[in-house]
Amino acid sequence: MVIADGGPTTADPLTTRELTMIADGRATLDGFDLRGVGLDYGRRTILDGLDLQVASGERVAILGPNGAGKSSLLRILTAHAPDRRGTVLLDGLPLEGYSRETLARRLAVVPGEVSLPFAARVEEVVALGRIPHEDPLRGPREGDRAAIAAAIERVGIGELVGRDARRLSLGERQLVVLAMALAQAPHVLILDEPTVHLDLRHQVDVMELLVTLNERDGVGVIAVLHDLSLAAHFFPRLVLLDHGRIVADGSPDEVLSNDRIRAVYGVDPALVHR
Amino acid sequence: MSAGAVTEGRSAVRLGRLDTLRHRPLLVGLGALVALAMAIVAGVAFGNIAVPIGDTIGILAQHLGWPVATSWPASAETIVFDLRLPRVMTAAVVGAGLAVAGTTFQGLLRNPLADPYVLGTASGAALGAAIAVLIPVSVAWLGFGLVHLLAFSGALIAVAVVWRLARTTSLSSLTALLLTGYAVGSLLAAGLSVAMYASGAQLRQIVFYLLGGFSGASWPQLVAAAPLVVVGSVLLLLRARSLNALLLGEETAANLGLNVRRERAILLCLAALVTAAAVAVSGLIGFVGLIVPHVVRLVVGPNARLVLPLSALVGAAFLTFADLVARIPGELPVGVVTAIVGAPFFLIILRRARAGYEV
Description:
Chain A is α/β, with parallel strands linked by helices. Chain A has helices spanning 16-24, 70-77, 100-106, 122-127, 142-155, 170-183, 200-215, 228-234, 252-255, 258-265; strands at residues 32-41, 44-54, 59-63, 85-90, 93-94, 107-110, 188-192, 220-224, 237-242, 245-250.
């Protein structure tokens, strides 16, 4: 493991005993470990008292109504919320101890939306995913180009090669960014509503791709999803957020009970086809 | 995941399609290099007193250390080497610097309308120059005057102020920088107006600086400005990866491993330094820093590893050529030429651009 200068800092909610165990290698905390995590925007509390463990190689969907704090949780996992409360460990070490560069070789993020200030071909956007791996001065080499081609192939956007990414539909653009994240060859893939602009066929394609990546290649997947049916069908573990707190965490059957759907979403559970 | 996940044949097809783009940058680079060499030779040969092209090349070659027999009058050597060459070289260096700074500011601010002057450098330099003109002390040393010094400092101070103020706002960082740059620029422009109003007979001197040009170019000036421009540009080129990472925004750049705060500060600093050095010796020359990066991007795409060096070459060739054109009817301000030549050229390029280019 490579740690940025300064190394791990002392994290409050972990006991000294736990830290010693981690240092000794007796406790292997693989993946994310969140303890007492909270986040405020100004006076408004977005997330509060979150305890969440996601082992590396797990496939987890984060669900919840608008404003529940899903995207904020992703921002915390990707170290974009420096003023959060609580402790976040990644592979047993505090998240803030990692350099951006080390994180980028571990986590790839598919944001909900991206914009391009200049025209860029699809393959040029996908190539950005190699930035954490490529030679800083010379740029992408042969191996990087192979990874770019493989990512394009895998997401099935070969037809889009050569086109200006700004002229694509929102759904196509989402696939391009997904390919960029795959080119990053991450240990964990973090996605913010990756299917929101896609038609049904592509929604299923992307979900199946995530399952394969997870089960065959061992890539951890943490995805914010809106579609409860997709989540229940393709993810073995769901985490349901409401008003900044985790209200349920477990298998689809445990999490998506009729009572809970009614309570959290305020809709008739019959509307959620499973 | 690995490349092995893909069947060999099909991925080879994809790579083949990616490869077709790779020859273009080389062609553009060679073309720009040839154009630059031609512009330099032509710029040195033409003028009020024409020096034959053969003699010009001979004089240049001799100074480059090649054993060429002297077959020209000494006056030709003075004209070529002491008067025209520093001017032509200054134009090339300034053109390269403005194009590199423009590329950097456009990428950094993620704004196609950005140019080297966007964060107050132009008005800072202009106000500095105007103040220098108004100060009734004549300081001159090796061709440097107070004008150069205050223009250089003015540009840097303006960017520093913008940078400092932008950090205190609650806006998103890029919007804050752009708006603060605009506000500070307007304030400095007001100061410039006052200075011009108060300048009386010296107004012409201020306007002369504002229009920009290379008629005052000399070796000492070039020797002072060129290292700043060249070193700054090379350091920017070495950070091309950062500009690439910023293409999809600052958050994605961070997810791709960039320390955004640090890189933004470094890129801004270097681009401001290059701009200030260019502006100090040449005055305000518009258009080069705005359009050259776009022209290059139209041909080779947004990869900063290509756009930065090619913009430098194209910018150098373009401004050398513009200065040559400016000298033909007498002494037109070169900024007028860059606009007259550049604008229609840019419009034509835009029409024939890679499909889907939008500025």
